[in-house]
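User: Can you predict the 3D structure for this chain?
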Amino acid sequence: MFDTFDALRRRCSQQLVARAESGATMAEYALLLALIALVAFTAVQLFGTAVSHLFTGYPSPF
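Assistant: Here is the predicted structure, written as structure tokens:
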């Protein structure tokens, strides 16, 4: 009888772990997206004016 309860307890705990891992994956994706957005924003702030001056420094061929 205890073997049945033990098997049921192990099965339920495995299902709970699987659900917890899928929730962590969503949180990881959100953190990764925030990091990418931060890096892109910082790159535009640092290099935006320099790149703009590269294109406006040359006369237009038209």
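Residues 50 and 56 are 10 Å apart (CA to CA). Residues 2-56 form the longest helix (55 residues).
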